[in-house]
Specification:
Length: about 300
């Protein structure tokens, strides 16, 4: 059959989408049909080497059932169209962060499962035994899933573990199945901190409550340079970060979560501090500008921290 010019153009236009739906190598079933992306990206912050890991990605339908619960469908559609993103599907990214200080290798969060995390770590040049500290920003399943394999064997048997005291106390009393399977067996190895507590010199906890009762971000500082690991402060670069008052289904205290977004994003914008978001488009690093009255704009990293 001979293609017309119009048919040929349409066929060619479909090719990038076909490539984009290929499974990411080595990330396991949790990756689903996702863009064929690298699994790690390195950045430099003073004397720190910072690496983001793509430990998982998946396609999620009906994002309006997750984001913008307090806005109407027309507003959601208008905002989405302006950002050139569809309203019927979203791509979720799960991005732990490694900070190599020169004397410690500190991992922030662990992804959905041990397999995806270890694959991404290996691609970045790290083995499980290299990790000296595991910091859990909060205890949703996509952050604690890689703490152990399906048989309950700890992924990082020699590491120290750190989390917020308020966060641990909340889940400790909840009867949550994920907490009991992944965190409880390691409970006696955790140390706890509050707002302003230090994991080590240059890595400071920042209260970011609302998404969960003890959700924490972490400010990294080295040689006068700063970077905020904001975890799930904002879960999407448009439907959450750009519109901080939009309610997100996964935020346990939606009012507090919105106030946290405005406070931390406002600080990042004013001080020109780059940030890493666990669910931002990989590699997860970018900058924030103010937009209009009370809104923000995510500017992805290009080469500033190479």
């Amino acid at each position: 059959m001979k293609l017309t010019r119009r048919q040929a153009i349409k066929a060619g236009a479909a090719l990038p989408f076909a490539a984009a739906t290929a499974t990411v190598p080595g990330a396991g079933a949790a990756m689903g049909h996702a863009a064929r992306l690298p699994q790690s990206r390195d950045f430099t912050l003073g004397d720190f080497k910072v690496t983001t890991l793509l430990a998982g990605s998946r396609r999620v339908e009906n994002p309006k059932g997750i984001f913008g619960l307090n806005v109407d469908d027309d507003t959601f559609a208008e905002v989405s169209a302006a950002a050139h993103i569809p309203t019927d599907v979203a791509q979720f990214f799960f991005t732990p962060t490694v900070v190599n200080t020169g004397s410690e290798v500190i991992l922030f969060d662990t992804g959905l499962n041990a397999g995806g995390l270890l694959d991404a770590l290996a691609g970045a040049g790290y083995a499980a035994g290299d990790v000296t500290h595991v910091v859990i920003t909060h205890m949703h399943g996509d952050h604690i899933g890689g703490l152990a394999d399906d048989a309950g064997n700890p992924t990082f048997p020699d590491a120290a573990y750190v989390t917020g005291q308020a966060e641990f106390d909340h889940w400790d009393m909840s009867g949550n199945e994920g907490f009991e399977a992944k965190v409880r067996p390691l409970a006696d190895r955790f140390t706890f901190l509050g707002d302003g507590g230090a994991v080590r010199s240059g890595i400071t906890a920042v209260a970011a409550y609302g998404h969960t009762p003890g959700h924490m971000g972490y400010m990294l500082e080295s040689n006068g340079e700063q970077l905020l690991v904001m975890a799930d402060t904002a879960n999407h670069y448009v439907w959450s970060l750009a519109y901080p008052d939009w309610e997100v289904r996964f935020d346990m205290d939606k009012t507090a979560a919105a106030e946290t977004r405005k406070r931390l994003l406002g600080m990042a914008a004013a001080d020109k501090v780059p940030l890493i978001g666990y669910h931002m488009p990989f590699p997860g690093l970018g900058y924030v500008d103010t937009r209009g009255e009370g809104g923000f704009h995510f500017v992805p990293h290009s080469y500033q921290l190479m």
